[in-house]
């Protein structure tokens, strides 16, 4: 009994020592030992092999040519506009068949619509050996299944405990470190130490997710006194960005572990946390943010203007509040590579704990971060136009599509103005084909 | 934490035979059904469909939603959902019985019922006017719209009763490839 106990203790000690030496210390110093790179190379090679096996297997099973699936749709959209479809057929004015166009469009929207689709995870063209993405692929071969089983064992029995340990270390050091730094009086030393603590803990947490992040255009990194704006895919976005720089976070005060972290970090660094009641008061929020931005010695604020998590294939409407504060906006585009793990948090389907568990049992989180040149509001441009301009820039850089819809619509009703547009278009067609104007001649000839 | 892998809904085989949709297509529709069912009730309510942006901007929104909730029902279960959508399965290149839901005749019947609100098998002048009003909104004044409706009805009505029966309606749209216009192709 004792032997087992002491053996277990020794194993745990060795384990912890290895983790500290190989991961924590290098990340504190900002150095890389190359272990993650080797892991990623092995992973890429395995997944390529798996893809080739699947393609071979699929070709054998279904010899006829399949239509190449569009990565983001399940139905083939007929993009004929209303004009071509209806007006092209008109002899006179109204045809009973006009209704076909609206009918089909309506049912297409029921089967699949652009917005709701953005709130389900991106479908992969080939399987990446994770059960959760296995929608289209069935049993292909024994070898593939064996590799998959090995993958499951590796992910759950090795990677998960490792990542969990790292995450625990990261969060604990963040809380302890920032509390200690928070005791110091405000000074340059304090800011320097606070930045060090934040950076180190972010790096540890990114290793906890096996994150491989490629930063582009570092010369455009957000400066002090500015506002950093990025597209939102998951709660991890903040960690991804703080891995490379220090920001002042903006958000609502939460309870539980998150609340503890928030209270600890705000002592060391002027993050902006709002009480739930304050969030409703937009003027108060804007005022506090404006004060923060006006102080040029303060770190740049990090804001996600979409307001909710989108599945990283598109950018939805930016809420204009962030763009009314003034100051310089530094847009950042974040694009995750879904091949290695799906970072999207579908908050209506998974709670935060199951989400974190999924993330920690994925292969890795790979993403690209593009820093873009700063943008300022032009003369005569209102907040909404400015928000759209920034959004277009981010979408273009990240290779995401732009949608005019509000992310909040996934929970709320649509306004009537969109319907009026369609009605206007149809009426124009009736008028254009001369029917309404010619009605007088029509009745006369009766 | 593995897959929330799709469990097939009950009665899949029978539903597949009845609707002519393949089991794979039905599985996709089932996922969609679950995605639309916001509060996980197990059935759809009119509000679930009305919250879809693509549908809400469609002038025929209420009629389309009404197709899923006949006779004032407030719930639509998955078989109902699948049966209505089965009308949009492309008939070409797939085995299709003459009376099946995706045959051209069935598709026409489906559209006819969108016009025929009271379900008496005839499209009356008032019903036609209502549909026209939905499609143009407030853009066109009453008299002009009434004249359009009257003329359309006059031209299509063969029996001279002043209402359109199904055969008249079918004749009026016969120039169109109904199957192509009223089909939704699902990608594999």
UniProtKB/TrEMBL annotation, chain A:
This is Glycerol-3-phosphate acyltransferase 3. The keyword Lipid biosynthesis applies. The chain crosses the membrane at residues 12-35, 137-158. The gene is LOC106494834. One of its GO terms (molecular function) is acyltransferase activity. Pathway: Phospholipid metabolism; CDP-diacylglycerol biosynthesis; CDP-diacylglycerol from sn-glycerol 3-phosphate: step 1/3; Lipid metabolism; Glycerolipid metabolism; triacylglycerol biosynthesis. Keywords: Acyltransferase, Endoplasmic reticulum, Lipid biosynthesis, Lipid metabolism, Membrane, Phospholipid biosynthesis, Phospholipid metabolism, Transferase, Transmembrane, Transmembrane helix. Its main location: endoplasmic reticulum. Belongs to the 1-acyl-sn-glycerol-3-phosphate acyltransferase family. It comes from Apteryx mantelli (North Island brown kiwi).
From TrEMBL, chain B:
This is Calcineurin B homologous protein 2-like. Keywords: Calcium, Cell membrane, Cytoplasm, Lipoprotein, Membrane, Metal-binding, Myristate, Nucleus, Phosphoprotein, Protein transport, Repeat, Transport. The keyword Protein biosynthesis does not apply. Residues 103-138, 144-179 form the EF-hand domain. It is found in: Cell membrane; Cytoplasm; Nucleus. Belongs to the calcineurin regulatory subunit family. CHP subfamily. InterPro entries: Calcineurin_B_homologous, EF-hand-dom_pair, EF_Hand_1_Ca_BS, EF_hand_dom. The keyword Repeat applies. It comes from the Eukaryota.
């Amino acid at each position: 009994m004792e032997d087992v106990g002491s053996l277990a203790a020794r194993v745990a000690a060795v384990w912890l020592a290895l983790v500290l030496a190989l991961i924590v210390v290098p990340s504190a110093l900002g150095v890389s030992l190359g272990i993650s790179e080797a892991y990623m190379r092995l992973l890429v090679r395995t997944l390529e092999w798996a893809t080739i096996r699947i393609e071979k297997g699929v070709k054998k099973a279904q010899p006829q040519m399949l239509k190449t699936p569009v990565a983001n749709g399940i139905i083939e959209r007929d993009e004929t506009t209303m004009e071509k479809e209806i007006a092209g057929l008109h002899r006179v004015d109204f045809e009973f068949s006009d209704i076909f166009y609206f009918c089909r469009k309506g049912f297409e929207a029921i089967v699949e619509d652009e917005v709701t689709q953005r709130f389900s995870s991106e479908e992969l063209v080939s399987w990446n050996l994770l059960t959760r993405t296995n929608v289209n692929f069935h049993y292909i071969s024994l070898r593939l299944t064996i590799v998959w089983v090995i993958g499951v064992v590796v992910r759950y029995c090795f990677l998960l405990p490792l990542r969990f340990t790292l995450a625990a270390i990261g969060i604990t050091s963040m809380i302890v470190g920032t509390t200690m730094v928070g005791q110091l009086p405000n000074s340059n030393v304090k800011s320097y130490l606070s930045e060090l603590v934040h950076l180190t803990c972010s790096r540890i947490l990114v290793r906890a997710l096996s994150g491989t992040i490629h930063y582009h255009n570092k010369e455009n990194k957000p400066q002090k006194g500015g506002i950093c704006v990025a597209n939102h895919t998951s709660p991890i976005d903040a960690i991804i960005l703080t891995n490379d720089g220090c920001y002042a976070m903006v958000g609502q005060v939460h309870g539980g572990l998150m609340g503890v972290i928030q209270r600890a970090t705000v002592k060391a660094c002027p993050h902006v946390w709002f009480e739930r009641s304050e969030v409703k008061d937009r003027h108060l929020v804007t005022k506090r943010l404006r004060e923060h931005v006006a102080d040029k010695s303060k770190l740049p604020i990090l804001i996600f203007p979409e307001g909710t998590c989108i599945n990283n294939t598109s950018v939805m409407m930016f809420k204009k509040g962030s763009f009314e504060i003034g100051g310089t906006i530094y847009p950042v585009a974040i694009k995750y590579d879904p091949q290695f793990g799906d970072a999207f948090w579908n908050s209506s389907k998974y709670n935060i704990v199951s989400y974190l568990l999924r993330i920690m049992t994925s292969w890795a989180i790979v993403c690209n971060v593009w820093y873009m040149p700063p943008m300022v509001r032009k003369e005569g441009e209102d907040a909404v136009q400015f928000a759209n301009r920034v959004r277009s820039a981010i979408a273009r850089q990240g290779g995401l599509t732009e949608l005019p819809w509000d992310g909040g619509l996934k929970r709320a009703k649509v306004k009537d103005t969109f319907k009026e547009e369609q009605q206007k278009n149809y009426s124009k067609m009736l008028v254009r084909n001369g029917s309404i104007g010619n009605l007088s001649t029509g009745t006369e000839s009766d | 934490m593995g897959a929330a892998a799709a469990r097939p809904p009950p009665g899949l085989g029978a539903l597949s035979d009845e609707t002519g949709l393949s089991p794979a297509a039905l599985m996709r529709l089932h996922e969609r059904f679950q995605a639309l069912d916001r509060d996980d009730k197990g059935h759809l309510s009119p509000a679930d469909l009305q919250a879809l942006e693509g549908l809400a901007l469609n002038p025929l929104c209420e009629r389309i939603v009404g197709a899923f909730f006949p006779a004032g029902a407030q719930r639509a279960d998955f078989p109902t959902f699948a049966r209505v959508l089965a009308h949009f399965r492309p008939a070409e290149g797939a085995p299709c019985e003459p009376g099946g839901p995706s045959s051209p005749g069935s598709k026409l019947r489906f559209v006819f019922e969108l016009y025929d609100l009271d379900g008496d098998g005839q499209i009356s002048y008032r019903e036609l006017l209502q549909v026209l009003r939905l499609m143009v909104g407030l853009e066109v004044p009453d008299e002009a719209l009434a004249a359009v409706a009257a003329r359309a009805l006059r031209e299509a009505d063969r029996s001279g009763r002043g209402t359109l029966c199904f055969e008249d309606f079918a004749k009026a749209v016969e120039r169109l490839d109904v199957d192509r216009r009223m089909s939704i192709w699902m990608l594999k």
